[in-house]
């Protein structure tokens, strides 16, 4: 794979292939017919817990929480005092493809909440208004070019240390439900070549050290640091109730047995 690592951009190329590649968990199941329909609305209490799981426990009480109304977009469900804001992202605008089975909890610090969070909020609202996936991608890229959206102007990070997320990921850049707790440090316009990183989706060990993930546009590049296996195991144990509740809510959120 190219050293300029980009989960979402690479997925677009992958989807153009006539054959879907096999991952560690087996061949990806075909998308359901409901994938193009409106997003489901999660129970508020479950969505709040899911969103906050992206944070270390000690930071959760002071964080703001946004919940999604699929017909309107996100709304502030709980104000915070730390500058950190959390939600469950459901629309990956970078893919130019609307799915109903994307779920990933993330929390931004104050710098990210003032910048990147606006993109997620607008993407959800524009999708709810009926904008197509291709139009949404073009609109957001245009807003970046017009400087309506900008990257944070100082270092910071997004927390994604929750026990479950469902989005594209290794080893095949297809949609998986996975346990991959990690931190994302803002690195706009930085590449893997800049930091000498050589991530390889097929070799998990190469992902245990920092690498760059460009998420759709250079301004949305992050330096990724996966948590270690001991930390991951502790998160899975501590969040077992949430894991079980998410699985009971929707089977696409059930972790593969090997992830437990």
User: How many strands appear in the DSSP assignment?
Assistant: 12
The biggest beta sheet reads:
8 strands, mixed
β-sheet strand percentage: 15-25%
The figure for the number of domains is: 1
Which percent bin holds the helix content? Answer: 25-40%
- Low-confidence regions: 1-5, 7-36
Report the radius of gyration as a whole number of Å.
17 Å
Strand order of the largest sheet: 4-3-5-6-7-10-12-11
Secondary structural class: alpha+beta
Count of discrete alpha- or pi-helical segments spanning 4 or more residues: 8
Task: Please write out the topology.
Elements: H1 7-15, E1 22-23, E2 26-27, H2 44-52, E3 64-69, E4 73-78, E5 85-89, E6 104-108, H3 110-113, H4 116-128, H5 133-145, E7 157-160, E8 165-169, E9 174-178, E10 182-186, H6 192-195, E11 211-214, E12 221-226, H7 229-238, H8 240-249
Q: Could you please describe the fold and organization of this structure?
A:
The protein has 260 residues and is α+β, with helices and mostly antiparallel strands. The protein has eight helices and twelve strands. It has one domain (7-16, 39-251). An eight-stranded mixed β-sheet has the order 4-3-5-6-7-10-12-11, sandwiched between helices. β8 (165-169) and β9 (174-178) form a beta hairpin. The longest helix is centred in the middle third of the chain and has 13 residues, at 116-128. It starts with 6 loop residues before the first helix and ends in an 11-residue tail after the last helix. Mean pLDDT is 87; it is low at 1-5 and 7-36.
């Amino acid at each position: 794979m190219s050293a300029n690592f980009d989960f979402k951009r690479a997925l677009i190329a992958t989807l153009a292939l006539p054959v879907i590649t096999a991952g560690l968990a087996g061949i990806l199941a075909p998308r359901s017919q409901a994938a193009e329909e409106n997003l489901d609305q999660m129970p508020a209490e479950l969505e709040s817990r899911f969103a906050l799981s992206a944070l270390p426990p000690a930071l959760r009480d002071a964080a703001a929480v946004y919940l999604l109304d699929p017909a309107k977009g996100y709304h502030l469900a709980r104000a915070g005092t730390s500058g950190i804001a959390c939600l469950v992202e459901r629309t990956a605008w970078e893919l130019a493809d609307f799915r109903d089975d994307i779920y990933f909890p993330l929390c931004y610090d104050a710098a990210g909440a003032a910048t990147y969070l606006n993109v997620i909020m607008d993407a959800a609202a524009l999708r709810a208004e009926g904008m197509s996936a291709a139009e949404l991608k073009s609109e957001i890229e245009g807003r970046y070019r017009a400087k309506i959206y900008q990257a944070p102007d100082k270092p910071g990070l997004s927390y994604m240390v929750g026990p479950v997320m469902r989005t594209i990921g290794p080893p095949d850049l297809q949609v998986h439900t996975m346990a991959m707790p990690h931190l994302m440090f803002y690195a706009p316009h930085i590449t893997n070549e800049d930091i000498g990183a050589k991530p390889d989706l097929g070799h998990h060990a190469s992902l245990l050290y920092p690498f760059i993930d460009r998420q759709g546009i250079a301004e949305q590049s992050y330096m990724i640091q996966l948590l270690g296996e001991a930390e991951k195991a502790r998160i899975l144990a501590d969040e077992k109730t949430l894991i079980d509740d998410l699985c009971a809510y929707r089977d696409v959120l059930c972790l593969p047995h090997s992830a437990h």
